[in-house]
Amino acid sequence: MPTIITRGAVSARGLGFAATPPAGGSAAYIEDYFSTDLYTGNSTTGGTQTITNGLNLSGTGGLVWIKGRSAASNSVLFDTIRGAGTTAANNNALTSNANSSEDLFGSSYDFLSAFNTNGFTVTQGGVATASRGANYNAVTYVAWSFLEKAKFFDVVSYTGNGSNRTIAHNLGSVPGMIIVKTRDASYDWMVYHRSLANTEHLLLNTTAAKATLAAAWNSTTPTSSVFSVGTDLKVNENGTAYIAYLFAHDAGGFGESGNDNVVSCGTFTNSASGFASVNLGYEPQFILVKRTNSATVGEWQMLDTTRGFVYGSLVSTSDDRRIYASSTAAAESAAGVGRPLPTGFEFNGANNGVYVYMTIRRPQKVPTSGSQVLGLSARTGTGANANVTGGAGITDFAIIKNRAVAATYPVVVSRHAGINVLATSDNLAESAASTAMLQAQCWDTMDGIKVGTTSTYTNASTETFINYLFRRAPKFFDALNYEGTGANLNITHNLGVAPDLWIVKARTPDGGWIVGSSVLANTEMVSLNVNSAKATSSTYWNSTTPTSTVLTVGTSTNTNTTSTLYAAYLFATLTGVSKVGTYTGNATTNQINCGFSAGARFVMIKRLDATGDWYIWDTARGIVAGNDPYFLANSTAVEATSFDYIDAYSAGFEISSTAPAAINANNGSFLYLAIS
């Protein structure tokens, strides 16, 4: 039985944490209770695979919702109350795009065959087809796992009695959305949503607009302990078995403070301008959206940042990849569906369209080691589509450099910007990468990034490359996008602390790479794409120091021009994980203490008081007592391999006595970023 180890963008696994729910009294984090996992069916009849996402489904209880992406398929739900399937004929699958009872396809259905302490197992049963289940060979799937947790999610079962009644739940807060389905009868899926009247409902398995039916919820709003059902057969037929999935709304209970909201249920209306902006107070990683005032475009749309939900006007049509819970259609590529924001999201809907939504917050945990958030990979190109892994799970930001071919840019690509690439050694605007550079599905992997076929920059056959694969995480690193206004501007970020190093680049048009730091004055900057010394101007940062919530930019064309799209990358000093600092050169051996215990795995250095290149070293190529390969972020030159400028030091890194003035000039001032 093959085991597929996945690290969801929404999960603690991607940060290297075990995702066992915290003991009573300790902090709870959304990645301990929700995970998005991507996998590919691998089975012949009766074959299985295990998806390891760290969630204790068997011990805690919850729901797994699976949808095929590369082929038309049913959207299937399995929960721990009804139990895992035992055979293809007793598979316990409910199908959100149909009104059918359990075991819809009988002996030809793939199914979830086990809830595990760290994930779940899927099995291909009978004479399966791509449309029927969870593990058909070569079909790609997405699975969303929800653990039961107060103020987040609950699963409730009951037997109908045909009379108005209340049903107890353990959500510990007033539900924002409730989904009810008959288990043993072919009735529609009923949906209660707090944004509708308590006499109204939606149907999960259809595109129908909202409808009025007092007998659905007995015209009664749910409470923190019960929800009500009336006499309608779809929610309360005498002797019929039902299952209900309950989602909280802005109930707090999570994060270091214990007050963070992790799930929200609300409504918005689109205008003629297209995009509606929704303020959640947090950045979402998952969105379920349904139009309520029309049946013609009323699919239940599901978006998540793992498959592709990006920010920007230049993204490829393959980047926003919505799935329909109410349809068998495969994952659809669609530009402009929406985009996540640091405090909410935007959605491009129909003019005068009224929508309801359910959202889930992005991961919250602070990392404890650099290996949880930075993957290093030194590799040889294959000339064929390839998945570059680094062991740190989901990648949000990547730097790739050809090590041995001259005139090749260090390439930068960010999940939030889609597949478009920037070059750190130039001021060029971003360009849309073809499959020859980075695949349109470059982020469609649970560890690392996918590269294309023949590009000299990323994967040409037999050529050597170094890859840095970064993960966004509180108090370590954040990547965001913003649109310039031409006026002094505060940009919200989710770093959780004031950044110590921030890098801004115009995505379009051309513009330099502008770097600020807490070790510089708030009127100072250096340029990543050139070797110039630090410079002074109040227009870069509006002479304003960043805070734990905002980065301020002034009126410089390089940081804030009207209608220009920018990328910003923010790093912080985090004990034991990362260090942004300065040192004074001494022209001899110079030990730089970063507070690490096993040395730095990544080091970037720039001289501030005079010209000097941006030097980058890493342990994948070697930070050792001998020669240490490095490349220059501001150059297209090949890496240098014949110099011993840096050595290993357990608390950080050591500048060797042979280092040049650009790294260790006596009394020179140097900026560095080090990651353990």
Sum this structure up briefly:
The protein folds into 6 domains: 3-147, no CATH class; 153-247, no CATH class; 263-361, no CATH class; 370-470, no CATH class; 477-571, no CATH class; 578-675, no CATH class. It is built from 4 helices and 50 strands. The longest helix is centred in the N-terminal third of the chain and has 4 residues, at 57-60.
Radius of gyration: 26 Å
- Biggest β-sheet: count, sense, barrel? 6 strands, antiparallel
For the termini, the CA-CA separation is 36 Å
The number of domains is: 6
Number of strands: 50
Spatial arrangement of strands, main beta sheet: 10-17-12-13-14-15
Q: What overall geometry do the principal axes of the alpha carbons give? A: elongated
Poorly predicted runs: 1-24, 313-318
Separate helix tally: 4
The helical percent reads under 10%
Task: Characterize the structure shown.
By secondary structure, the chain is an all-beta fold. The protein has 6 domains: 3-147, no CATH class; 153-247, no CATH class; 263-361, no CATH class; 370-470, no CATH class; 477-571, no CATH class; 578-675, no CATH class. Helix content is 2%, strand content 37%. The strands form 12 sheets. A 6-stranded antiparallel sheet has the order 10-17-12-13-14-15. Strands 18-26-20-21-22-23 form a 6-stranded antiparallel sheet, with no helix packed on it.
